[in-house]
Recover the amino acids of this structure.
């Protein structure tokens, strides 16, 4: 089983460089940065975790910036967006960002994407909440054209452009792996349709959902073994992680608090022991 680590990188947390180095030194496979461009003062949708919205959602740094910095002080660890809100971003510019970070990291980028939950946030970007998942799909499809074609064009309902030349192309061919976040069954269907992996929500029951996910993949003509399942945000319970490994979950990614190294390193060391226990 692969192990990663995620954090909302802020101006009061460990830096992405510090966390990436600490994880790489301990044998972790990946480091992940989530995204929120901003948080509107008035929200139409409640925080999915319940209660007040934690302040790191307001202060998250841009994931491409922090992961690019982390790439320059590491050599092996993979760098992932967990997750990028692509429905709020321009597809042409985002395709260039993905290709650029894949180039500068020498092929270590993992592209985690999601449709988002904050209606006000995405509407401030001009994205309609009701059609956000269609926009996400069209954005991904358009970026695949840009990454794989010398002359790329895309004509969808929400994303539309005539032939362009956009470089650089990614190091990873045909493009960095796309991990689609979302709850079962809709998120699973989206991952099967245009992704290379699925990031289910932490509130689901994977013992029930994973067999159904694999059946859905087969029915869609996809090889279930080609779709990595990554579990984010779980607690530091070695037995629970071992059960996920036995189910065939490819990767677990704990979310570390946005704090300084003296608070986070002991948590990383706890997860290092879990990693060693599960993979022995």
């Amino acid at each position: 089983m692969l192990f990663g680590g995620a954090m909302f990188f802020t101006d009061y947390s460990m830096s992405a460089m510090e966390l990436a180095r600490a994880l790489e030194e301990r044998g972790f496979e990946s480091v992940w940065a989530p995204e929120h461009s901003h948080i509107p003062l008035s929200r139409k949708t409640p925080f999915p975790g319940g209660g007040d919205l934690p302040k790191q959602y307001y202060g998250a740094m841009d994931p491409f910036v922090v992961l690019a910095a982390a790439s320059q002080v590491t050599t092996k660890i993979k760098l992932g967006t967990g997750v990028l809100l692509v429905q709020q971003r321009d597809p042409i510019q985002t395709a260039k960002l993905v290709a650029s970070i894949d180039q500068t990291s020498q092929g270590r980028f993992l592209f985690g994407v999601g449709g988002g939950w904050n209606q006000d946030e995405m509407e401030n970007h001009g994205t309609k909440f009701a059609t956000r998942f269609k926009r996400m799909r069209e954005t991904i499809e358009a970026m695949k054209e840009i990454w794989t074609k010398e002359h790329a064009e895309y004509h969808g309902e929400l994303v539309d452009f005539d032939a362009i030349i956009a470089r650089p192309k990614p190091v990873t061919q045909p493009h960095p792996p796309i991990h689609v976040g979302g709850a079962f069954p809709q998120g699973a269907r989206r991952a099967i349709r245009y992704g290379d992996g699925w990031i289910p929500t932490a509130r689901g029951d994977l013992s029930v959902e994973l067999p159904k996910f694999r059946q859905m993949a087969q029915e869609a003509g996809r090889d279930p073994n080609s779709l990595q399942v990554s579990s984010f945000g779980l607690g530091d319970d070695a037995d629970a992680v071992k059960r996920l490994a036995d189910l065939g979950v490819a990767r677990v990614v704990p979310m570390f608090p946005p704090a300084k190294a003296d608070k986070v390193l002991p948590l990383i060391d706890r997860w290092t022991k879990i990693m060693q226990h599960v993979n022995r």
Q: What stands out?
A: DSSP finds ten helices and ten strands in the chain. The longest strand covers residues 78-84. The chain has a mean pLDDT of 96.
